[in-house]
Specification:
The chain is α+β, with helices and mostly antiparallel strands and 83 residues long. The chain has 2 helices and 4 strands; from the N terminus they run H-H-E-E-E-E. The chain has a two-stranded antiparallel sheet with strand order 1-2. Strands 3-4 form a two-stranded antiparallel ribbon. Strand 3 and strand 4 form a beta hairpin. The relative contact order is 0.19.
Length: 83
Amino acid sequence: RPTGSLGLTRAELDERCKPSGLYESCSWDDRTIRKLIGDGKLAARMKGKDDRTTGTEQECPICFFHYDEINMLKCCKATICTE
């Protein structure tokens, strides 16, 4: 059964919400992150890449990894990863 605005299955949402392991802990509530990712308001948690491989990845200015999906801040249009 699809969940959230994106219509992802539970398995798809589980995969997109799994922490990448970049940081040891996260102060955000897991349920909140899951809802925001399922509704398409937050990019999926993904393992970042050291280098661009397809040319479509964007770099996070905090961790300097490249991601296929990244968040864009409304105020200044800066990009930032979910981790």
